[in-house]
Description:
There is one protein chain. By secondary structure, the protein is of the alpha+beta class. It contains nine helices and eleven strands. Helix 5 runs antiparallel to helix 6, helix 6 (150-160) packs across helix 7 (178-185) and helix 6 (150-160) crosses helix 8. The chain folds into two domains: 5-137, Jelly Rolls; 148-222, Orthogonal Bundle (Arc Repressor Mutant, subunit A), CATH 1.10.10.10. The N and C termini lie far apart (41 Å). The radius of gyration is 18 Å and the shape is globular. Strands 1-8-3-6 form a four-stranded antiparallel β-sheet. The chain has a four-stranded antiparallel β-sheet with strand order 2-7-4-5. The protein has a three-stranded antiparallel β-sheet with strand order 9-11-10.
Amino acid sequence: MTKTLAEMLEGSTWGRNLAWNEMDRVRQECFERRVPAEGYLARMADPCEHWIGVIEGLVKMSVTAPDGKVSTLTGLTAGGWFGEGSLLKREPRRYDVIALRDTRAAFMPRATFEWLRATSLPFNHYLQNLLNARLGLFIGLLEYDRLLGADARVARCLASLFNPDLYPEPGPFIDLQQGEIGLLSGVSRQRANTALQRLQAAGLIRIEHRGVTVLDLGGLRSFAGT
């Protein structure tokens, strides 16, 4: 069932703990944008004026080197929010945010974000947990990139989608195509397909028509390949 902007805000991990007057202001000041596949939600080096959440769809954070090489940092599915670091540091955005499929996004203005930080203890606790989870994710990605082969990187990428602080709407079925999994894992679509086949043979996942079903989350988290 498609969520409205208000339903997404009210049902979010942080929104459920706001006072009624705080949520009332959030509903009034947040707005929605629709971004087509391959469109930009935000661009690197632009001023960061909004905290952004995914209502529906899939986006990736990426950086582009001077030679044109693109590196995907991570992805965000429905329910995830990003941009708090740049807002807190008052710095330009340090990455591009691109829709991998048609996406609906919620935008919270900086003034609303700062007002919640100044008035809501639960919101501050949420931000603390989110930043800690984000740090853990990127430390893990650095470790996986340096120490693990492609099969294990795909396994850990799938497992990372079950962090409730970063992805608050987890389920055993992951609605990602193989090319999207490859992008988020930092491997080619063909290499992602091979890795998924091996993970299925190991009994950790089941490949579906449009995505994968996770059968053994602990196994994915500890998978080291061969």
